[in-house]
Amino acid sequence: MVGIIGGGQLARMCAPVAVNLDITLSVLCETPESAAGLVVPSAPVGDYTDVDTVLEFARDCDVITFDHEHVPQDVLHALVATGVPVHPSPEALVFAQNKLAMRERLTSMAIPCPAWASVSTAEQLAAFGAEHGWPVVLKTPTGGYDGKGVLLVSSPQEAADWLAHGEPLLAEEAVDFLRELAVLVARSPSGQAAAWPVVHTVQTDGICTEVLAPAPQLVPDLAARATEAALRIAGDLGVTGVMAMEIFELPEGGFVVNELAMRPHNSGHWTMDGSVTSQFEQHLRAVLDLPLGSPRPREQWTVMTNVLGGQDEDLYPTYRHLMARDPELKIHLYGKAVRPGRKIGHVNLTGTDLADLRERGRHAADYLEGTVRE
Ligand code: ADP
């Protein structure tokens, strides 16, 4: 049995794969309504920050993995001490939990990163801004997602609230990038690794709204170097399972790494319909140390469009219309309560005409969100 800590949409999307491979899942959910808890028979509800709860959950599991990066290190180490395999390990996961630790480690590996520093005081921030220019991007080292925990500041005064906590913050140069890309790889405990093509993650207001796979007009040399960097990071850090490396493509050529995630990732949802092996299947194969599947794309292009919550609570009439309008459309909903702006699903389209796929994906997402009515 594979135990997944966190019952969100990522654990949920592992469920169909687990059914097909006859793998039993158990998910530790935060609430009875958790996206995965609704579809996985074994779905105890409990606090993933509580050691006893997590150890009790893990007792019947053959391997433990995660839906998110927020399980505290002491809980992870207590799990490892029981002898159950934990993938990724706490030693690897720390670099996805803590952006300061990640910057330090990647810099020591000579992986290109934005200029950065750890700052705890207004003086340190002023010195960083004086050296690298304003505005400066400030980040909380832990707990950020979808742009929360990221602040663009033009002076130390603007960061006063954040600095008041006295905790070290990550200061980064504001990178003037061409576009945001992501490299998705998987690595098994035996060291086998596989990489999907580099994708373009289109962002709107700090949220990924669309993924184009592969990234259009990407210079082959950049794709090769970024993929090599992601595989080297996964190997050197001992990552097991799926890892996403988010990068910024630079106008002068090359890239810098933004951040790492060690789990199936939004930038890989296109693989469910666009690749021989989806990231969810690959993650389960990797954490069970099974041979990995082919990451080869099935079609020239796949476009993934995220669906955000809109006004409509009941999506059934909406997707009924979309199914009739576009029989090629693949709809994936997460069973989450609809709240404006919340990621509640995504749609995938594959084919040869990228502009057409984007237009149809956008329409379907807008229709599900209720912003267009026909
Ligand atoms: P989160 O952990 O919330 O996803 P990220 O570190 O990915 O936060 O940052 C969110 C977004 O902010 C990025 O997708 C990017 O658009 C922007 N961003 C982050 N770091 C920088 C930077 N150093 N320079 C310019 N933009 C940045």
UniProtKB/TrEMBL annotation:
Boundaries of every ATP-grasp domain copy: 103-288
GO BP annotation list: 'de novo' IMP biosynthetic process
Record-annotated membrane-spanning stretches: none
An example Gene Ontology CC term for this record: cytosol
EC number: 6.3.4.18
Catalytic activity annotation: 5-amino-1-(5-phospho-beta-D-ribosyl)imidazole + hydrogencarbonate + ATP = 5-carboxyamino-1-(5-phospho-D-ribosyl)imidazole + ADP + phosphate + 2 H(+)
Gene3D superfamilies named in the record: 3.40.50.20, ATP-grasp fold, A domain, ATP-grasp fold, B domain
Binding of ATP, residues: K99, K139, E172, E173, A174, V175, E180, N258, E259
Pathway named in the protein's UniProt entry: Purine metabolism; IMP biosynthesis via de novo pathway; 5-amino-1-(5-phospho-D-ribosyl)imidazole-4-carboxylate from 5-amino-1-(5-phospho-D-ribosyl)imidazole (N5-CAIR route): step 1/2
Keyword GTP-binding: no
GO molecular-function term, one example from the UniProt record: metal ion binding
PANTHER family: PHOSPHORIBOSYLAMINOIMIDAZOLE CARBOXYLASE, PURINE BIOSYNTHESIS PROTEIN 6/7, PUR6/7
Family named by the database record: Belongs to the PurK/PurT family.
Known role: Catalyzes the ATP-dependent conversion of 5-aminoimidazole ribonucleotide (AIR) and HCO(3)(-) to N5-carboxyaminoimidazole ribonucleotide (N5-CAIR). Catalyzes the ATP-dependent conversion of 5-aminoimidazole ribonucleotide (AIR) and HCO(3)- to N5-carboxyaminoimidazole ribonucleotide (N5-CAIR).
Subunit structure, as described in the record: Homodimer.
Name assigned to this protein: N5-carboxyaminoimidazole ribonucleotide synthase
Annotated organism of origin: Branchiibius hedensis
Source lineage: Bacteria, Bacillati, Actinomycetota, Actinomycetes, Micrococcales
Gene: purK
